[in-house]
Write a structure and sequence with these properties.
This protein is mainly beta. Helices cover about 15% and strands about 40% of the residues. It has one domain. The protein has 2 helices and 9 strands. Strands 1, 2, 3, 4, 5, 6, 7, 8 and 9 form a 9-stranded antiparallel sheet that branches. Strand 8 and strand 9 form a beta hairpin. The radius of gyration is 19 Å and the shape is globular. It starts with a helix and ends with a strand.
């Protein structure tokens, strides 16, 4: 009987405090890919990332999957957690790349948290590529 009571208590607590996936993490899908040309114009990309999915942990800034995860990058800066009037903003920077004069890789992700749609649009810039898509 105690187990049933404990189970009902836990179910009641969870029902009263719903947690939505977007509160803790985003699941995103890439829908478009473009690359910057030598002339400074965005051109169609190689479609390497279209259809790829990735996961963003909102509080830590860890991005997993999609071929551009940042879990091994030492610097992840969440500029804004996003809300009903601001976008979620995240920057990440790699360690210096050996043999390339201490160059770095970096990414900048903006998810329009304030969008009234269930799927939130995003833009991700990294390595001369511009990716867009949606997150839930």
């Amino acid at each position: 009987m105690r187990y049933i009571t404990a189970g009902l208590l836990i179910a009641t607590i969870l029902a009263c405090n719903p947690v939505f996936a977007g509160d803790l993490a985003y699941e995103c899908e890439v829908l478009t890919e473009q690359m910057i040309s030598d002339d400074g114009v965005l051109e169609p990309g190689l479609d390497i990332y279209i259809g790829k999915s990735f996961h963003v942990e909102r509080r830590t800034g860890v991005v997993l999957g999609g071929g551009f995860g940042n879990s091994a990058y030492p610097t992840k800066s969440i500029l804004d957690l996003g809300n009903d009037s601001m976008s979620y903003k995240l920057i990440w920077v790699s360690r210096p790349i050996w043999g390339l004069d201490d160059s770095h890789n970096a990414g900048y992700l903006v998810i329009q948290e304030y969008s009234e749609n269930y799927l939130k649009p995003f833009i991700l810039v990294f390595g001369g590529r511009v990716l867009t898509g949606t997150c839930e």
